[in-house]
Amino acid sequence: MTKGPTGPKGGAGPFFEDFDLGQRIRCPTPRRLGEGEAAAYIALTGDRTPRYSGAAGLVHPLVVFHTVMGQTVRPVSLNARANLGYAGMRWGGPVRLGSVLSTEVEVLGLKENSNRATGIVWVRTTGRDQDGREVLSYVRWVMVRKRGEAPTRWLEAPSVPSVPGPVKARELCLGGLDPLPDLQATGGRHAFEDYAPGERVFHLDGQTVNASDHMAFTRLFQNSARLHFDAVLTHGDPLVYGGYPISLGYAQAFNGFENRLGLAAVNGGAHANPVHAGDTLYSFSEVVEADPLGDAPVGALRVHLYVLKGVEPSTVPALAVRAADGKGYREEVVLDLDLWELVAKRG
Amino acid sequence: MTKGPTGPKGGAGPFFEDFDLGQRIRCPTPRRLGEGEAAAYIALTGDRTPRYSGAAGLVHPLVVFHTVMGQTVRPVSLNARANLGYAGMRWGGPVRLGSVLSTEVEVLGLKENSNRATGIVWVRTTGRDQDGREVLSYVRWVMVRKRGEAPTRWLEAPSVPSVPGPVKARELCLGGLDPLPDLQATGGRHAFEDYAPGERVFHLDGQTVNASDHMAFTRLFQNSARLHFDAVLTHGDPLVYGGYPISLGYAQAFNGFENRLGLAAVNGGAHANPVHAGDTLYSFSEVVEADPLGDAPVGALRVHLYVLKGVEPSTVPALAVRAADGKGYREEVVLDLDLWELVAKRG
Amino acid sequence: MTKGPTGPKGGAGPFFEDFDLGQRIRCPTPRRLGEGEAAAYIALTGDRTPRYSGAAGLVHPLVVFHTVMGQTVRPVSLNARANLGYAGMRWGGPVRLGSVLSTEVEVLGLKENSNRATGIVWVRTTGRDQDGREVLSYVRWVMVRKRGEAPTRWLEAPSVPSVPGPVKARELCLGGLDPLPDLQATGGRHAFEDYAPGERVFHLDGQTVNASDHMAFTRLFQNSARLHFDAVLTHGDPLVYGGYPISLGYAQAFNGFENRLGLAAVNGGAHANPVHAGDTLYSFSEVVEADPLGDAPVGALRVHLYVLKGVEPSTVPALAVRAADGKGYREEVVLDLDLWELVAKRG
Prior knowledge:
The structure is a homotrimer.
Chain A: E1 24-33, H1 35-45, H2 61-77, E2 80-91, E3 99-112, E4 118-128, E5 134-145, H3 153-156, E6 200-202, E7 207-208, H4 211-220, H5 243-252, E8 260-270, E9 280-291, E10 298-309, E11 333-344
Antiparallel strand pairs in A: 1-3, 2-5, 2-8, 3-4, 4-5, 6-9, 7-9, 8-11, 9-10, 10-11
């Protein structure tokens, strides 16, 4: 007998047919983020952002992100065929070490694909701390496998939501910024005023991805998507969780953004090409917009963070991230993350 | 000169001749288990058990087990040829993060083997916290190398103790169960009442074992048995510590046992076949007995947790864990762990 | 545009021309060392020193060392061609978990090499906790690349400082030793009185170095030197950070020095040959001097800790660490660390 009285257990995860418009799902498992997660994050990424290394006692914004994202894997994306995009991602301010995060998703849109094998699910994801305070919110859309061939009502009558546009600088959370980085202590002489739109910042460090590192990183956030861990399933080459190049690139970007305070928003992100163990990742940033935020002690920089594999971008004059035919990214680009960073002003 | 005034140091570990009946040994090194160990455990196994991920502040029962087991390696099993079995393993209730565990072993039985090269040592292992409270106790028997060829008195007159039978459901520790898992928050709809003897639960997730992961796991628990770490000694293929597949299988078993509270007892365990880096592990559970424990808010399930290498068990109809000739396990089975799990009732 | 208004960012690190005599540099990034770092250190090294595993709540002396060393990489040695030596390294007593360490360097000497491509920089490195208390201090000298070919004044008029000689036993910090190791609980029967100059202690354990382990170790300490991480830059074989064999050897040396209290000083150290992933490391210690420190409850042992690759030193009778021609070390020796260790006395 392989079934219990209430049917088989060991869930194969949600299929497209399991979602409904307006549905709200509490995601397992509430997670406490403490000193252990902070140290493991540094060991797995090399992140050196002063605000998340020293006395402030804060959880790194990307630890918040990966935790929330990991909590949505089981109820949303265990059977995802593709992670199509994010939008409108905003952090709700500092999270103290020791906080316990829980995540809820709400289904915003559904569209069955014409192949009848998959559909697209749009969800609003909201992470909260133990006091119910919102720590992260974003819209994400993923392509999810269908359980069967019978068409759903979302084939003929899809419900496609409007996706948030770029976050505006004035919408960024500026609470809890104290203490600001000490421009003498961070090792970087560049303040907000020193950055200009159009500027490229090369981060120079390369990091070769090891199988253990990317898997430990993904497990740290209790993300259980199978294709990251199973060499049999993936014909010998597990796919690196897309969040790992985000964190490696962000860690590398300390070199050039030493006085950053941590991510405030992500306007969108493209996982342009897959990463596997053995790839060596490099990154650079392109400043798109600089907003002084009035009299605030920090300014906001809108930046594209590009992560590439196998190519050190500072060695390629006028490197183009787009493919020669203008369609999509060149094959070395693995990530294009359109983000808002807060950077301390000179004073 | 390679010896000090009191003889050579750098102990080669105990040999069969070093044990005596009734001998009690305090094991090095008292170990504090805190947030760091909790995070490292999750990063190395992917465990998602809600009780050990969130606000409760408890040490995972398997972290207790591996710590206690690791503490016995140096005084008992550094020269073990084989880990023959465990029995009567019971946890003594929740262990709070920050506890300091110490372990004592008592020699229960001794039998020299007829080959005069090895002998069997039975020990009662008891782990305690800083207040002397028992947190784990079990009987284990191991085959240990002899130092020399001269026979011991345990060749002619072995002392073979009676090994505990299966733990009875009413012997399980039910203290400190609050708060119970919230059946809405765990991501699993199955309560104790939904499990039935004979049922197989497939956990579906596969995990390829990396060299770094199994060694870091074993070092985390200060287990220094050489064959897990030394590629020269092992002709290029260090043996994975048998505790790692226990933890990986238990982590995988969250999928199907989402409302579990953590191991309460182990009746016995067989490390049926060795695991090496590169193996991909899968698991399933077979429910053997379900005891409602009277009016308790949890029930007890006796379960065999099977871990296999290279075979996803849900894809094999009527999979037999025994070898075709009925003698021992089939070669893909690496672990058969006979355990008691407490699971929250519906209400 | 690849430059901002104040020039390019993403620093390529200091070159020889960037240093000046008497210059003081505050190193980024102040780092909090807590339970997470303690657990990660044990997982990555297998260290079992009782004082840093149990209830005492102290940071391992080598965690202090690697943190301070890592903080100096960006301002001093990112472009180092070779790590030439350390001297006069003393720890300032116990560091409590939760301390925040900051590091300052002072340039003591400068000498341009006759090849005009590199120069030697001598620095005094001082690590302090959040109260300004000195936790570690040492002199280090490194060969650093020049930015250009134009000679500096340090070619014609080098300033070569006198380097400290061996630390004297009476200079060792003896504060905060309580509680002393319990000679019954550590698993080692050897007290200070049992060691004698000339004695060799074989530590027996071998550890094969994995790519993930050495990189995670190096990242844990926010050491960003590129050649440890980038397989493209290093033609497929990243160089293991020299601190990793220090920590692995020290962890192995628990077997034979069970009643040690942790490093008190390092007189000098030679990274005799490089280590790469795949190497298996073994170690032994040679006692050079034993100082009872008067009536102190501990004595001081001056010890050379030798780490070798591919050779288990206990299997080689009268193993010589020097090469056959007497010049330098034999090729299997990767580390010769001349240190002072405090060891509990018998009573």
